[in-house]
Structures are given as structure tokens and as C-alpha cells.
Task: inverse folding
DNA sequence: CCCTGATTCGC
DNA sequence: GCGAATCAGG
């Protein structure tokens, strides 16, 4: 990939918006975060006023999330319909049948309140970040939970519970 | 450990 | 000019 005018323009825009180098690299595609940083320096636009790093943001989310909601283990409690993002909680109300993910969820999950996700992009996932899909796979804002995984497995403690499916329910991915 | 940007230096 | 390797830091 080479730095076309269009890609440079998008780089400037995203960098001005405060996205991290790795996030920009992910969106541009075909370049590493090092390449992005290098280009930023060559363009001499390294300074950024904002302190809006992903890590800072997630810390704030986690802090505010602890105040408003009860124990999220209300799977069998079908009365919690309220979705309140201001307390850092969100509800999974979409039926996921995505083929873009290795782990297919066949059952419709509703009325389950979980802590808000970090919403990481695919390339930002590591062995210890939750890989639960968040959002519409067909929309540009689709990404992954990104919370720290629990004891084991590909999902965080909240999503791993949702992800469980008996072998009898397992379907072949078409 | 996973992430951040900064810098260096061979290509 | 480019970006991988490396550094320093949260």
C-alpha cells in the first residue's frame, strides 16, 4: 500500500479525531501502526491536544458502570428490559446469526444486561480480549466486545455465559 | 501483559 | 519517504 492523497487525508482526519495509531491503521488497512506513526511524524502533525486514549476511556467506563446496575446475572430473570447506557450497561437484543465469527450463536438472546463493551476492532483483539461480536455485522460500526476475558475461553465472564451452547444445539456454519 | 506514541536507521 | 525494530511509558 502506498500513501495516496486520499489515504493521507483520511489519516489526518482520524488522527485529528483522536484515534490511536493502531486504530487508524486498522481502518486504513494494509499498514501497520508503525507506518501510521511514521507518516504522522513526517507530516509533522504529531501533537494532539486530546488525552482521549482507549485505555483512559475504558477505565472511565468501568468506573461508572459499577454504580447503577445490580448483579448482571439476571439470565433467568426475564423482567429486566431497561436499557440504560448512562450507567454503563447495554442490552443484547439482537439475534446473532453471523457467519463472520467462528463462534456461531444460534439462539436469540434477549433481555440480558451486560456491562458496556470496549468495542474493539478485529485487529485489536488479543488472546485475552473478549471476542463477542457487538453491533450489526453489516454495519461499519461492527466490532467486538474487547473486555478482558474471564477464567478461560474467547469471551469475558458475561459473554461466555451467553456463548455457551449444548452440543446438540450446534449447527454447521453455512 | 497489552496498549500508547517517539525515535532510529536500513532500505 | 517508508516502516520494522526498538524504546519509554501508562
Result:
Amino acid at each position: 500500500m502506498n500513501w495516496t492523497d486520499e489515504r493521507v487525508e483520511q489519516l489526518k482526519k482520524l488522527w485529528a479525531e483522536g484515534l490511536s495509531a493502531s486504530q487508524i491503521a486498522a481502518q486504513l488497512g494494509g499498514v501497520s501502526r508503525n507506518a501510521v506513526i511514521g507518516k504522522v511524524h513526517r507530516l509533522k502533525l504529531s501533537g494532539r491536544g486530546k488525552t482521549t486514549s482507549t485505555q483512559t476511556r475504558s477505565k472511565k467506563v468501568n468506573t461508572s458502570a459499577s454504580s447503577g446496575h445490580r448483579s448482571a446475572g439476571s439470565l433467568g430473570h426475564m423482567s429486566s428490559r431497561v436499557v440504560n447506557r448512562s450507567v454503563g450497561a447495554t442490552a443484547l437484543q439482537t439475534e446473532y446469526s453471523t457467519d463472520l465469527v467462528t463462534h456461531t450463536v444460534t439462539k436469540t438472546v434477549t433481555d440480558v444486561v451486560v456491562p458496556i463493551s470496549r468495542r474493539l476492532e478485529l485487529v485489536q483483539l488479543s488472546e485475552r480480549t473478549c471476542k463477542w461480536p457487538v453491533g450489526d455485522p453489516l454495519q461499519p460500526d461492527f466490532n467486538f466486545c474487547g473486555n478482558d476475558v474471564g477464567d478461560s475461553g474467547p469471551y469475558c465472564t458475561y459473554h461466555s455465559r451467553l456463548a455457551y451452547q449444548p452440543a446438540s444445539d450446534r449447527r454447521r456454519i453455512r
In short: DSSP finds five helices and four strands in chain A.
